[in-house]
């Protein structure tokens, strides 16, 4: 059924901290590694060793430069982008076959690869680019929130989280129930002002992004300036030593404009 | 958006087929039985063949064509599913109408109700086709109230030109057919012209700032992958936008040429045959541009500042 279920109390999702993400791609690669052999597999990349490698990945890490107003410096923000498991996902309602669905019990948006016809309409309906087509299997693929990990009692309890969360070395990815206002992830969102992507489109994403923290004073981070010449005896001594030790002809060849042998500064 | 030829063929061929079928059905509804069986069979065969080619072509776009039947199940929420259901329902109705209209089945009283019903289903099906695209909020150029009327106008224009050419072959050409085609062509041109004005002037309400939540000063610094991915191939098509102005003129030129040929055909009936290819070119280029010109919101994550 591609009609949406009544919103569940439980809303499993991710909270991504843009302040601590270092853009290392560990989440993307561990996602690919886990999902290539699980329910969504094989997630084949075509021409994997060649120049035009392409294939479905559920997690893409963008890098953005943010120029803050009134500052002449900018900062880099690493920005992982994956399915946001929206509360009102258009990708589900446009599906003509019922292959695309939102789970009533926990809100996870999934695709049934056995009934998907590969019409790609869901990828057109998603503003976040979360769905990618598997050219080798002829069906759409997407983030499953590692549904085959989070309920998998064969795994150790600490491993029952999405592969991307488990892999993140800086703890920038958090998994939990965003429908429960007292959960760790909900408290984190509240504390850090977590936000939705493209909220005006009305798909009500479950995943939240935590904004980068405000910059500390960066004045002290500038390159230390060279000290001015003070004309002291000690400096003259160093100048003399520098002149003596400098191979004049080599210096002239390396730096033809400046063969004075004078210390800069 | 990537203009897939299978989808362009689907929308143009099935549109022309439904346009032709609806006009034949309305002709039957108002005039009763067809003048000759040969005319009825030929015209219905062409209409249903165009529709079938279009529908089969749409399945070529699928990754798993053998599962296409599953697309009929989600008509409660999906316009693509509704389009499929409407298309399937139209077949038996059109065939029953054809049997009565051609005289194969002697039931003159049924021609009019079946004719209106067939024409109505043609309209519904083409409307659903347009709605597949116009229901997508992620594509500004498609999320537009003129999209469905344009799909219907082009279906009627291509169908009317075909009607005139087929009628001419069977010596059934009347000036009314040329007038009908001319009206539909003018309607298509005007609607398309207004549509282009609208999409060019529409506010780009979605920004990279809102997509990333990183504020006004955000710009792309590093792309997430070193080669193309599906999203870039499917949504990042730029050739159409680069040549949009020229191609719009091509569409309008061929629409005008078709109009002129239909006008002149009132004197020289053989010109109806030349209007068929000119109208086909107009419809094809228009539909190619409809896809190629459309920009997807996901471009905001890939460096577009607004969409």
Give the arrangement of secondary structure elements.
The complex is a heterodimer of chains A (265) and B (307).
Chain A (H helix, E strand, L loop, with lengths): L11 E6 L8 H10 L24 E8 L6 E8 L8 H4 L6 E3 L6 E3 L9 H5 L6 E3 L4 E3 L5 H4 L12 H5 L5 E5 L6 H9 L15 E3 L22 H13 L2 H7 L11
Chain B lengths: L4 H27 L5 H24 L18 H24 L5 H27 L12 H23 L5 H27 L6 H5 L5 E5 L7 H6 L3 H4 L1 H21 L6 H22 L15
Strand content of chain B: under 5%
List the chains of the largest interface with their residue counts. A-B, 70 and 59 residues
CATH topology of chain A: Alpha-Beta Plaits
**Based on helices, strands and strand pairing, what is the structural class of chain B?**
mainly alpha
N-end to C-end Cα span of chain A: 74 Å
Please provide the ordered H/E string of secondary-structure elements of chain B: HHHHHHHEHHHH
Label the CATH architecture of chain A.
2-Layer Sandwich
| CATH architecture assignment of chain B | Up-down Bundle
Mean pLDDT of chain A: 89
The strand count of chain B comes to 1
| Total DSSP E strands of chain A | 9
CATH topology of chain B: Formate dehydrogenase/DMSO reductase fold
- The CATH class of chain A turns out to be Alpha Beta
- Sum up the overall morphology of chain B in one term: globular
Q: What form of chain A results from the Cα inertia axes?
A: elongated
User: What is the quaternary state of this protein?
Assistant: heterodimer
Largest sheet of chain B: none
Overall mean confidence score, pLDDT of chain B: 94
Helix content of chain B: 55-70%
What does this structure look like?
The complex is a heterodimer of chains A (265) and B (307). By secondary structure, chain A is of the alpha+beta class. In chain A, 22% of the residues lie in helices and 16% in strands. Chain A is built from eight helices and nine strands. Chain A has helices at 26-35, 90-93, 121-125, 147-150, 163-167, 184-192, 233-245, 248-254, and strands at 12-17, 60-67, 74-81, 100-102, 109-111, 132-134, 139-141, 173-177, 208-210. In chain A, the strands form four sheets. Chain A has a three-stranded mixed β-sheet with strand order 8-1-9. A two-stranded antiparallel sheet of chain A has the order 2-3. In chain A, strands 4-5 form a two-stranded antiparallel sheet. The relative contact order of chain A is 0.19. Helices cover 68% and strands 2% of the residues of chain B. Chain B has helices at residues 5-31, 37-60, 79-102, 108-134, 147-169, 175-201, 208-212, 230-235, 239-242, 244-264, 271-292, and one strand at 218-222. In chain B, α1 crosses α5 (147-169), α5 (147-169) runs antiparallel to α6 and α6 (175-201) packs antiparallel against α10 (244-264). The longest helix of chain B is centred in the first third of the chain and has 27 residues, at 5-31. The two termini of chain B are 13 Å apart. The model of chain B has no long low-confidence stretch (mean pLDDT 94).
